[in-house]
Design goal:
Length: 139
């Protein structure tokens, strides 16, 4: 996905099922999201002031949800950057392959839930920004 753009990434509003006991939102394969989930992971207990991410994926599609609290995500396609605030558990950020991302400004108790299209593969990561720019710009 060398050609992917930050404009291919979007906030998905999930349905909210309100009950007197609280709310519930659902994500189904290939329904609310354009992929089938093969893996779920989540980060938590993130110390104040710390950032995560700083990499891109070659093949992975993801939906990131602030399951609790809030955090900021900056996406970068090698040309354009967009920053999103995730602070509602009924919103997910769809990230397509080939996008550099940095997560920061985690609130106390924030949980970053990720629904991912592929199994874990360290070779899918680009962790060097200069390498990412070469990947995107075809050098
Ligand atoms: C992403 C952001 C939002 C595994 O062993 N298996 C896994 O499936 C994952 C995701 C990670 N790990 C190990 C690899 C590292 O030793 O967990 C450790 C932390 O992973 P990483 O430094 O990649 O964590 P983040 O928060 O920077 O990035 C993660 C995901 O890796 C990445 O896909 O988009 O969350």
């Amino acid at each position: 996905m060398k050609e992917s753009k930050v404009y291919d990434c979007t906030i998905i509003e999930l349905d909210q099922h309100h009950t007197p006991q609280g709310n519930l939102s659902v994500v189904s394969n290939s329904k609310e999201i354009p992929f089938d989930v093969k893996r779920i992971y989540y980060s938590y207990d993130i110390p104040g002031g710390k950032a995560r991410g700083a990499h891109a994926h070659r093949q992975l599609y993801q939906l990131l949800v602030a399951a609790s609290g809030a955090f900021s995500i900056t996406l970068d396609d090698g040309t354009v950057r967009r920053t999103f605030l995730l602070n509602h558990p009924y919103q997910g950020l769809l990230i397509v392959p080939g996008i550099w991302r940095t997560l920061d400004e985690f609130s106390s108790g924030a949980i970053c839930l990720c629904l991912a299209s592929e199994a874990y593969d360290p070779a899918d990561y680009i962790r060097d920004y200069d390498e990412f720019l070469k990947y995107k710009h075809g050098e």
